[in-house]
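Hey, can you fold this one?
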Amino acid sequence: MKHRTKQLQDMKMPAILGCAGLLALIIFFFVFNSGKNEEEVAKEDKVATLEKKVTYLEDRLYKIEQDLGAARNKIAELDMTLPSITENIEKQLDEFQQEISGTKPKSASASAKPVAAVSEKEPAKPQPAKVAETKKPAVRKTVSKPDRPKAQYHIVKDNETVFGIAQQYGLTVEKLKKMNNLPSDSIFPNQKLRVK
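Sure. Predicted structure:
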């Protein structure tokens, strides 16, 4: 029995050393491998943060492009109404100038009230001065303006280009861009472009 006990004791020492070595290798592996994982996790966190920022910026850019398209459409609508507003103002100015110069405007001649005859026995009663008459500007001659052609507009369809639209209406790209205050060749569907 003593012999067998000695054999077991002799075998314990290498087994203990083997287990200790294996345990040391496992600890060594986890210590150095976990450092890499922390670096990789930090990199992945940075990538995820950057991806979120890129997504946010893309959303903002999309919103800005929509707002820009809406603004361009609003400007195009205003450009469409501007000639009629200008024409109205010119008509009113012409009528005002004709009133100042003493000539009757074309539309007023049909609806003018007859002036009552003043008898020689009754002195004429002075008429109260109108407020507008006290602030009359100097009389200017009216110059007839040539009739301007009415503006014509084109609604941009999908896949149309500035070049194609310019060719369609016999314009150069630069002329079309200048007429519509376009800073670049970028146009959007449903955008109104002045072509005449």
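The CA atoms of residues 138 and 192 lie 42 Å apart. Let me know if you want another pass with a different chain boundary.
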